[in-house]
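URGENT: need a sanity check before tomorrow's submission.

F., can you look over the Helix-turn-helix transcriptional regulator record below? I want to be sure the sequence and structure line up before it goes out.
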Amino acid sequence: MDKYRALDAFAALSQSTRLDVFRLLIKAGEAGMSAGNISDTLEVRQNTMSANLAILARSGLIRSVREGRSIRYFADMNGMRGLLAFLMEDCCGGCPELCQPVLDELVCT
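Structure tokens as predicted:
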């Protein structure tokens, strides 16, 4: 991921509702969630949610699949990995053991 793509992702996540959406979709995992369910869960009006989902999609942090008249959204794990890799690429000054505590925190338990 380059610096400008990372800046887009950070800008998308810098708004409270969008950060909540991204975290919710990470929790939803492979099942994802419909736009309506996301709106209902976070108690956000659907037109407002639609704008926030579009920003997250443009940033590469979420993806969507049309299911008839509905759209299901998913956290884009490749986008998230790219952002994390961007943050960590210069980590530790050549001493990987310094980064191990951070990596241990990132591992799902």
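My own read: Residues 46-59 form the longest helix (14 residues). Strands lie at 33-34, 62-67, 70-75. If you see anything odd, call me.
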